[in-house]
Recover the amino acids of this structure.
């Protein structure tokens, strides 16, 4: 049955280069274009956003140019020969770095393409590097060499980086923090607003180390220690892009200035208190009158009565 699909796959690969694979929310796996197997992303390294649990939903099709990606493949129970492996369709846009197969792979009955890889064992795993922008198809093969299924990926250069809180899933950026605190950061690569997957090498730099300094950096994650009050500038580079953010570091005494009612400062308050006392003694109805006005009011009170 698989062999009979070879000519169909050959025709479909050209069509797939302009399409995308089916997405399955939250699982990171996808049924292939032909429906015979399932593909799943693996964490390719510390610089891969797919390593963050829950950040990538469905089967991502956007891969960062220059990154390394890893995926696994399993064949369905309808395929007679189910060991399988992965291979790139003839394209120089990506190159294979490694490949492994599970010779003891045995499909579990009643688990056909349910996207639960505890139930759907992995038959093959492969690692690739994205070398050129464009579309590329990854083939899932049966161990007789025929194509069982495939998915299509889009390789794109990062157009921007975003530094967010490491525990954020909604683009929550860091704007301030207190002296002595540590902040966990994460960087994410984007192409035209779409999140890119794949392991990239990142470098983190604090431009004001006396204000804030990194105590650890690993791939897309970093921990920043806030050391003294001021403005910390954090820069991260990767995928041919860079991003710089500013973080206001506040001391324990920082905060809104407390001002007593009736004055803008302690000195003005003292003067205001003296004036108010003079006004009261002179019988003035207004507590905001100046000392000069109070004196005039006191000397002309008799005339006022007339």
């Amino acid at each position: 049955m698989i062999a009979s699909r070879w000519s169909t796959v050959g025709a479909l690969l050209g069509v797939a280069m302009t399409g995308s694979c089916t997405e399955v929310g939250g699982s990171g796996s996808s049924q292939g274009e032909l429906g015979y197997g399932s593909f799943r992303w693996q964490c390719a390294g510390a610089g891969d956003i797919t390593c963050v649990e829950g950040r990538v939903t469905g089967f991502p099709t956007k891969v960062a140019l220059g990154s390394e990606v890893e995926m696994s493949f399993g064949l369905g129970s309808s395929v007679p020969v189910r060991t399988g492996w992965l291979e790139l369709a003839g394209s120089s846009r990506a190159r294979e770095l490694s490949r492994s197969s599970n010779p003891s792979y045995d499909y579990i009955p009643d688990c056909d393409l349910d996207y639960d890889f505890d139930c759907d064992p992995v038959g093959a795993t492969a690692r690739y590097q994205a070398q050129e922008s464009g579309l590329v198809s990854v083939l899932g093969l049966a161990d007789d060499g025929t194509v069982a299924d495939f998915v299509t990926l889009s390789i794109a250069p990062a157009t921007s980086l975003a530094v967010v809180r490491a525990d954020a899933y909604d683009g929550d950026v860091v704007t301030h923090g207190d002296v002595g605190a540590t902040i966990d950061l994460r960087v994410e690569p984007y192409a035209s607003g779409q999140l890119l997957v794949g392991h990239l090498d990142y470098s983190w730099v604090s431009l004001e180390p006396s204000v804030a300094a990194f105590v650890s950096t690993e791939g897309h994650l970093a921990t920043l220690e806030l050391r003294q009050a001021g403005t910390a500038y954090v820069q991260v580079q990767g995928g041919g892009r860079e991003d710089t953010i500013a973080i206001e570091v506040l001391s324990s005494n920082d905060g809104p200035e407390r001002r007593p009612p009736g004055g803008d400062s302690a000195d003005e308050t003292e003067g205001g208190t003296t004036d108010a006392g003079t006004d009261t003694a002179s019988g003035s109805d207004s507590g905001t009158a100046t000392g000069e006005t109070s004196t005039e009011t006191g000397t002309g009170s008799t005339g006022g009565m007339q």
About this structure: The CA atoms of residues 181 and 226 lie 6 Å apart. The domain at 3-156 is CATH 2.60.40.10 (Immunoglobulin-like).
